[in-house]
Target: Rho-GAP domain-containing protein
Amino acid sequence: LADAYDSAEPSPILKPGVHDAHSAAGLLKLYLRELPEPVIPFQFYDRLKATGYRIDDGQDLQPVISILETLPAPNYTLLQFLCQFLFEVTHWTNAFYSR
Model:
C-alpha cells in the first residue's frame, strides 16, 4: 500500500472489500511518522501546553487557535485536514454505533 501511495497512482489506493479501516489507519500513521517534522513543530509545544493548562472545558479556544494560526502554511493546512477528517470519522463512528 505504501508503495502504491508513493507512486501517486491516479486510481484509488484503498479498495472496498480488499482493504479495511485498519489498512487506511496504518497508511495514515506511516505518512505522519515519515514527515520531516511533526505536524505541530517542537517550537510550538511549550506555548500550546501553557495555553492549554489555562483553558477549562467549555472555555474559549481562541488562545490556542491564535497560536496554531502561526504554524507554517503546510503544517496548518495538514492540521486542518486531519481535524476535519477525524471529525468525519467520529461522526460516522457515532452513527454506526447508534443504530
Observations:
- The radius of gyration is 17 Å.
- The CA atoms of residues 17 and 37 lie 34 Å apart.
- Helices lie at 2-6, 21-33, 45-54, 62-68, 73-97.
